[in-house]
User: Fold PhoU domain-containing protein from candidate division WOR-3 bacterium JGI_Cruoil_03_44_89.
Amino acid sequence: MAFAIPLALSGGSMFKDLFIWWEEDILLKGALEGVKDMIEITKEMFDFATASFFGEVEVKHDIYEMDKSVNVLEVEIRKKVYEHLSMNPKQDITSSLVLTTIVIDIERIGDYSKNIYELSLIYTPESGTRCYEEAKRLSQHVNAFLSQIGKAVENGDVESARKLMEEKNWICKKCEGIIKEIVIDEAIKVRAAVVYSLMFRYLKRASAHIGNIASSIVNPFYRIGFKPE
Assistant:
């Protein structure tokens, strides 16, 4: 399945960005399929990590082996892009730069998924508390974002990507607000405060990286990771 990658060489608006389908170039097509695989594995990692944290694991996975698979794909994608540009140095530069940029964000989401899983190894959260319910709710949002970003990248869907950027801002602000509440809450136990502060931090960062990927669809290359102009 091919992906649509924006060719935003100039500073034009998102509505003027052009999209091209890579069906003929074997290297780029392989790189794009690798991006799809990275997103799918990363989503599985996040699913498993959050299920582990909330004590809802149905199928056991080796998250570290999954992480290795993501890393291998990242290297393979960079290699394919490099080989493509070596043979076609004047073609598709922006699309190639976008690919090598978003794989970093995908890999980082996998890292934060590992961090969440590692929290589950040292702490069993108490259900019914406000922190528990908020963490679970926000985890479900980030999970949905991962599904949506995969489709948005695959289809070059600017509107969906823009919506994800907006929702990412909400998630980040919500997580930051809860962390501040935890810090000033004298009733919360120290261990719970530390774990949940980390949990909300990881959710915030994972959401931010999803927003960066979405911005690669909406923005010209030099504004990836920033608000649309």
Remarks:
- Residues 1-19 have pLDDT under 50 and may be disordered.
- The longest strand covers residues 4-7.
- Helices lie at 26-53, 63-87, 93-122, 130-155, 158-184, 190-218.
- The chain has one domain: 24-223.
